[in-house]
Amino acid sequence: MNSLFKALNDETRRQIIELLKDKDMNAGEIADRFQISKPSISHHLDILKRADLITSEKKGQFIQYSLNTSILEDLLSWVLTLKK
C-alpha cells in the first residue's frame, strides 16, 4: 500500500494516470505531453508499474501502457471502509 500512496503523491504521475484513463499510450506518446526528459517519464512509469497502477504490454517495438483499474477499485473500497 505504501508504494501506491508514494506513486499517487506526485503530480506528474497523477497526470500520467489521467492520460491513461482516456486511452492506452506508449512512453513516447506520454512523454510528448510533458516538458520533462524521457528518462524522467520512464522513471515515473516504473514507479506507477511497481505500485500496480499501470500495466505494460510489448506491441511491436513499443511498450503500451494501460491503467490498472482493479487496483484503483481496491483503493477506493479501502478508503470507503474508513468512513463510519
TrEMBL record:
HTH arsR-type domain ranges (all copies): 1-84
InterPro entries recorded: ArsR-like_HTH (IPR011991), HTH_ArsR_DNA-bd_dom (IPR001845), HTH_MetalResp_TranReg (IPR051081), SdpR-like_repress (IPR047796), WH-like_DNA-bd_sf (IPR036388), WH_DNA-bd_sf (IPR036390)
Domain of life: Bacteria
Pfam families (alphabetical): HTH_5 (PF01022)
NCBIfam families: HTH_metalloreg, repress_SdpR
UniProt-recorded name of the protein: Autorepressor SdpR family transcription factor
Keywords per UniProt: DNA-binding, Transcription, Transcription regulation
UniProt cross-references to CDD domains, sorted A to Z: HTH_ARSR
Key word Transcription regulation present: yes
Upper taxonomic lineage: Bacteria, Pseudomonadati, Bacteroidota, Flavobacteriia, Flavobacteriales
Keyword field contains ATP-binding: no
